Amino acid sequence: MAQRLALRQLLSLAPRALPPQAPAARHSRAFSASANCKSTFNVQDGSDFQDRVVNNPKPVVVDFHAQWCGPCKILGPRLEKMVAKQEGKVLMAKVDIDDHTDLAIEYEVSAVPTVLAMKNGDVVDKFVGIKDEDQLEAFLKKLIGA
């Protein structure tokens, strides 16, 4: 009953005039990318993964994650920060397993977060779960050979 009353009151409200909007800009907006953005990217599809990860001459860390995954929300930014510290020696690809189930199956991802280290198209290392910054740094140093 209370829900119906609230709905009636909401529907009975007179529509309010929207504030005038500025005309569309005729010039393109400037966009700047930080070092973090340059070294991290979201995978769009299978061919994008092939081009930007498998065929990449640089080592790539692949973060398989999901929007609903709590640990992924902790690991993702931590890993991005550590990759950015490597100053372009390694890249990071982010793969949402709900959007790219085929890639998750192909790389045998059974839990998230799963992080793969890829070099010359081959998986050379892997971990599942959260790692602290020291462990991530060691993982990246091993990948880049430093």
How would you describe this structure to a colleague?
This protein has a 5-stranded mixed β-sheet, sandwiched between helices. It has helices at residues 2-12, 35-39, 46-54, 70-85, 101-106, 133-144; strands at 40-42, 60-65, 91-96, 114-119, 122-128. The N and C termini lie far apart (68 Å). It has 146 residues and is of the alpha/beta class. Residues 14-19 and 22-36 have low confidence and may be disordered. It contains 6 helices and 5 strands; from the N terminus they run ααβαβαβαββα. β2 (60-65), α4 (70-85) and β3 form a beta-alpha-beta unit.
Characteristic key phrases:
alpha/beta; five-stranded mixed sheet; 5 strands; 19% strand; globular
Helix/strand layout:
Elements lengths: L1 H11 L22 H5 E3 L3 H9 L5 E6 L4 H16 L5 E6 L4 H6 L7 E6 L2 E7 L4 H12 L2
Parallel strand pairs: 1-3, 2-3
Antiparallel strand pairs: 2-4, 4-5
Quick recap of the structure?
This protein has six helices and five strands; from the N terminus they run ααβαβαβαββα. It has helices at residues 2-12, 35-39, 46-54, 70-85, 101-106, 133-144, and strands spanning 40-42, 60-65, 91-96, 114-119, 122-128.
Q: Work out the strand percent.
A: 15-25%
What's the mean pLDDT score?
84
What's the quaternary structure here? single chain
User: Helix fraction?
Assistant: 40-55%
> Nearest-angstrom radius of gyration?
22 Å
The CA-CA distance between the termini, in Å, is 68 Å
Q: What would the principal axes of the Cα set say about the shape?
A: globular
The strand order across the widest sheet is 1-3-2-4-5
User: How many individual β-strands?
Assistant: 5
Overall structural class, as computed from helix and strand content, comes to alpha/beta
- SSE ordering: HHEHEHEHEEH
Model regions low in confidence, pLDDT < 50 over at least 5 residues:
14-19, 22-36
By DSSP (H or I, 4+ residues per run), the number of helices equals 6
